[in-house]
Automatic annotation (TrEMBL):
Source domain of life: Eukaryota
GO MF, one annotated term: ligase activity
UniProt protein name: Putative cul4a-ring ubiquitin ligase complex
Pfam families: LON_substr_bdg
Lineage of origin: Eukaryota, Metazoa, Ecdysozoa, Arthropoda, Chelicerata
Organism listed in the record: Ixodes ricinus
Domain Lon N-terminal: 70-201
Protein keywords: Ligase
PROSITE patterns (UniProt xref): LON_N
């Protein structure tokens, strides 16, 4: 009986496949499999607006410290800086009509935050120049939508403002001069290290 048991045990051992410990460990994914490549320029181009927009030529730049009257759009969640592209989809007929008049003239309007209007008697804003646009009409509802791509141009301060009977805000603005960005090294420099600096020749 002992021999039979030993033979049965040997048979069981032979029937169980031998598993190599190295096979239990999964190989980590290769670096190429983990890499995600995409075109970093696409977000700034706003290609989701479509490639059938009508481009406008020419640029409008106001002289520093000059005063102008321009229509202004207010927004609670948009802070426009010079050089930034601002995509807009406009549905209100009054604002669409306003944008058409802007396109026919100097293509410039203002962007001001709603909080800035209530916080300061002379709030700051940024001029925006329309670079391209297109108008779409929904076939079912007949509702028109104006798609605009504008670019932030110059900072301004509102001197006076009034709301027209159609609800459009007009503002008398003063163009502010550009402020050059400070040197990063100077901003991060510790004043306590001034004594270690070599005198300039």
């Amino acid at each position: 009986p002992a021999e039979a048991g030993d033979s049965m045990a040997d048979d069981i051992i032979l029937l169980i496949p031998r598993v190599d410990d190295a096979d239990d460990e999964e190989e980590p994914p290769s670096a190429s499999a983990m890499d995600v490549t995409y075109d970093t320029s696409l977000p700034a181009q706003h290609t989701y607006l479509g490639d059938d927009m009508e481009d406008l030529t020419g640029r409008t730049v106001f002289e520093d410290d000059t005063v102008h009257t321009i229509p202004v759009l207010t927004s609670h969640d948009v802070i426009l800086v010079p050089g930034q592209i601002l995509p807009l989809q406009i549905f209100r007929p009054l604002e669409i009509s306003m944008m058409h008049r802007i396109i026919e003239n100097d293509r410039t309007f203002g962007i001001v935050g709603e909080s800035a209007l209530t916080a300061s008697p002379k709030p700051l804003g940024t001029t925006a120049e329309i670079r391209s646009y297109k108008e779409e009409v929904d076939e079912l509802s007949g509702i028109a939508t104006l798609v605009v791509k504008a670019e932030g141009r110059q900072r301004f301060r509102i001197l006076t403002s009034r709301t027209r009977s159609d609800g459009i805000l007009l503002a008398g603005i003063k163009i502010l001069p550009d402020k050059p960005a400070p040197d990063v090294g100077e901003v991060a420099r510790l004043p306590s290290l001034d004594k270690l600096r070599l005198p300039s020749r």
